[in-house]
Amino acid sequence: GTIMDSRACVKMAAAAWASGFLYALLHTANTFSIPLCQGNTMDQFFCEIPQILKLSCSESYLREAGLLVVSACLDFGCFIFIVVSYVQIFTAVLSIPSEQGQHKAFSMCLPHLAMVSLFISTALFAYLKPPSISSPSLDLVMAVLYSVVP
């Protein structure tokens, strides 16, 4: 209660909702403005930005690349926030005097940390892998791993 009061919780939730809404709004508006000249069928189970850009026939991908840079900055900020949060959590847990209490607290935190790590690592691999190892089946597996599994 001393570190996290209800006001701080509301502010963090509002920031998460607002940044998510802004991110979705920017990409949705830009996606609908891209002309598609190669049909509208892709080998994915949802419309991912890199897959949509493969169908584009104009130079409008530069606009989307700019939005991806903005979203990378937003993602980096979220990543830093998560790291700082976990440092504070682990510091608080390690200050618990009983080993049993520490074990209980870590057993609550580690599954979440595992899912966050799985999400971040598979998303980074999916978006930053070299085009030489890209294939539709690998793209589909990566999309499932970072969007469905966590």
From TrEMBL:
Protein name, per record: Olfactory receptor
Membrane protein topology class: Multi-pass membrane protein
Organism, as annotated: Dromaius novaehollandiae
Entry's Gene Ontology cellular component terms: plasma membrane
One GO molecular-function entry: olfactory receptor activity
Pfam families: 7tm_4 (PF13853)
Organism lineage: Eukaryota, Metazoa, Chordata, Craniata, Vertebrata
Record keywords: Cell membrane, G-protein coupled receptor, Membrane, Olfaction, Receptor, Sensory transduction, Transducer, Transmembrane, Transmembrane helix
Transmembrane feature ranges: 68-93, 105-128
Location in the cell: Cell membrane
